[in-house]
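Worked problem 6 (solution included).
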Amino acid sequence: MKLRNDWIILFIFILLQLGCLFYLSKLIIAKTDLLLEAKHKLKAYERKDESLAQLQQDYGRLEKDIEVLNQALPDKSKIVGLINQIESEASSSGVMAKISFGQQSIQSETGGVKSLVFNVTLKGSYYQVISFIKSLEKMPQVITVEKMNIQSPAGIEGENNVTLILKCYIDPDF
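Solution. The predicted structure is:
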């Protein structure tokens, strides 16, 4: 009988150990799943940190580009300064300039861009006019010569009457 009781005790002991192993294995699996989930979240945060660092670098470059665009495409507050700068460039080039605007000076271009079209009448030598046009090219604003009419009654070295139709691209919210 004692042998039989020993076997029963041993059997109960083995069952308890199997139960503990089963319970602990479920607990270990649950903890492993939590750790894997935390690892995936950590990797996602690391990727977000890398993305954020890249966005911060891109933002710095975009800020510079936006500054260049703001200078290249003047808004309403900068148009008077632009006209004064054109007059100053004309004076520096040695030509007399008269700027005039038509009825529909502001035009809508393709792509949502707007432009300001105006006439510039110049008096000066051929080389002074060329110097003025070169100075327009160096300005930070985007200015194109749409049309040019040159009258040289005294020849190329004498005084020329030049009419330019200029187009300056402006802020789309103008």
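Discussion: The chain has two domains: 1-72, 76-170.
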